[in-house]
Amino acid sequence: MKEIQIYGSGGHSYAVIELIRSLNEYTPVRVIDDSPKIDAILDVPVCKFSESFINQSTVISIGSNKARKKISKKIKGNFPTFTHKSAVVYPSARIGVGCVVFPNSVVDADVSIGDFCIINNNATVSHNARIGDFVHIAIQASVAGGVQIGEGTIVGAGSVILPEIKIGKWATIGAGAIVTKDVPDNAMVYGNPAKIIRN
Ligand SMILES: CC(=O)SCCNC(=O)CCNC(=O)[C@H](O)C(C)(C)COP(=O)(O)OP(=O)(O)OC[C@H]1O[C@@H](n2cnc3c(N)ncnc32)[C@H](O)[C@@H]1OP(=O)(O)O
Known about the structure:
Blueprint: E1 2-7, H1 11-23, E2 26-33, E3 40-41, E4 44-48, E5 58-60, H2 65-75, E6 82-83, E7 88-89, E8 94-95, E9 100-101, E10 106-107, E11 112-113, E12 118-119, E13 124-125, E14 130-131, E15 136-137, E16 142-143, E17 148-149, E18 154-155, E19 160-161, E20 166-167, E21 172-173, E22 178-179, E23 188-190, E24 195-198
Parallel strand pairs: 1-2, 1-5, 2-4, 6-9, 7-10, 8-11, 9-12, 10-13, 11-14, 12-15, 13-16, 14-17, 15-18, 16-19, 17-20, 18-21, 19-22, 21-23
Antiparallel strand pairs: 3-4, 23-24
The structure holds acetyl coenzyme *A (ACO).
């Protein structure tokens, strides 16, 4: 089995480790943290970042999109994408490097997903959608056909993005939001219908 290191020791890392183990291709050998607070996660030792960890096979297990981007520039190296066996990814879909596609998610026909994205449990990204780098589609979120989402945006748990909607970069879609109108860069929206709360 090939070795892989996990960068980030928050809650997300538990789910990432289990997913990687379920695929039987890579063994997680260490969890890296800038200031470790525990010794091990699911029996994988946690250690402080060292320059010697640069340029190795790594998965960045950090839910924060901004932090994931920062770490991706620092650690460099090889970033495989992991897809759980229960996820459906159609052959016409494209997924970049460093992504994790969690159980029961759907990546539909002609979808494009950038680098270092998280497609979380039970999320759906429908046909022809375009998803930028460092995006998190959270648990149970539904992205309808033809939606465009810019770099670094979080699509909160259980939210619904209506067809053809355009969402800018580094936006926050609150949990449970029903997004019926385009969302500008950096905006925070939530509610049904979703309203801009912060710009
Ligand atoms: C595996 C996983 O865990 S994936 C999980 C991925 N994460 C998510 O989906 C979380 C998404 N984040 C949210 O929905 C957040 O609540 C945010 C970002 C929209 C807002 O966060 P904050 O700015 O910290 O808001 P805060 O918690 O202070 O709440 C402010 C007010 O907004 C309300 N509010 C917060 N979020 C929402 C929401 N999604 N929908 C409706 N109302 C909301 C609160 O009830 C509160 O109302 P009040 O002032 O009447 O008490």
